[in-house]
Inverse folding.
């Protein structure tokens, strides 16, 4: 059984579809990707249990970063922007075994910045997927 740690994870904005290129989002602290599927009930008389069929899928994402207004990856994630986003949970290595990544088009729905006198300036970015989320393997 393979085990993974998130320390090598990264997010990239833009680039070629299905390729591991793009602009890296700097100072990434954490991220998440949530995929969901809607269903419709298809139960008929005489059945003892409900039956459901899948319909559409969706995804959302979020990222927490140390804010850097000079970073091209962070500035590409401005509220209202439509972007191609690539999530690399274990890094973007092409060495065998190559890393898996997830890609989709998304709209940046929120950016929240926070600062405290005894901490770093941080930002939280939220994304709403527009279309399917695809999975790929980094190519050598």
């Amino acid at each position: 059984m393979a085990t993974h740690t998130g320390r090598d994870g990264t997010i990239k904005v833009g680039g070629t579809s299905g390729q591991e290129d793009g602009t890296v989002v700097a100072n990434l602290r954490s991220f998440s990707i949530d995929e969901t599927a809607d269903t419709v009930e298809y139960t008929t008389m005489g059945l003892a249990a409900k039956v459901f069929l899948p319909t559409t899928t969706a995804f959302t994402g979020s990222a927490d970063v140390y804010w850097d207004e000079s970073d091209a990856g962070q500035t590409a994630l401005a509220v209202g922007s439509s972007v191609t986003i690539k999530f690399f949970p274990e890094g973007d290595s092409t060495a065998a075994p190559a890393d898996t990544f997830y890609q989709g088009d998304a709209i940046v729905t929120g950016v929240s910045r926070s600062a405290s006198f005894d901490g770093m300036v941080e930002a939280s970015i939220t994304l709403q997927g527009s279309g399917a989320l695809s999975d790929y393997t980094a190519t050598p």
